[in-house]
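Standup notes
- DV: blocked on the single-chain target, sequence here:
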Amino acid sequence: MPNSVPIESKQTMRVLVSGPDGANTMFITTGLASALNARVMDTDATTPASNPNYSILLDEPRLNPGQFRGATATVGLAFFNFDENPLPVGAGKGASIGIVSVGAALDNETGLVKLQFQLHVGAARADVELSRISFQVITLAAL
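- DV (later): unblocked, structure below
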C-alpha cells in the first residue's frame, strides 16, 4: 500500500484551453512532498535497496463524474542526505537515489486527482535519506 505524505508550498493554476475530447480547462499543480522517510543505512554493503511507493491526493480540482480527461505528472528530487561510513578504511562506498515511476489518475471515490510515485534509495557503507520531492501535475477537464 502506498504511503501518504504531507504537501508543502502547493500552488494550482487554472487555465482555459481548447483540448482533446472536449477538455476546456487545464489545472497545473506544483508543490513539495515531505516526510518521505525513504532511508537506507548500511554498514557492510549487504542492506538491500528500498523502493517505497507514495500516494498524494490533491485537494483540487474536485471533478464530477465524466469531467476528467487526463493527467500527467513529474517528480523531482528536492532534498537528500548522504553520510558515508568511515569504516572499513579503503572499502568502496556509494549511494543510489532515483525515481522509479510516476503517474497521475482520477480517484473515482473522491473526484480528486491522485499522484503516485515510487522512489529508489540504495546505500553501500553509507546512510542515505531522501526526505523531499518536488512535483507537478497537469490535469485536463471538461467543465
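- Follow-up: Strands lie at 3-4, 7-16, 25-41, 53-57, 68-84, 94-107, 112-124, 126-141.
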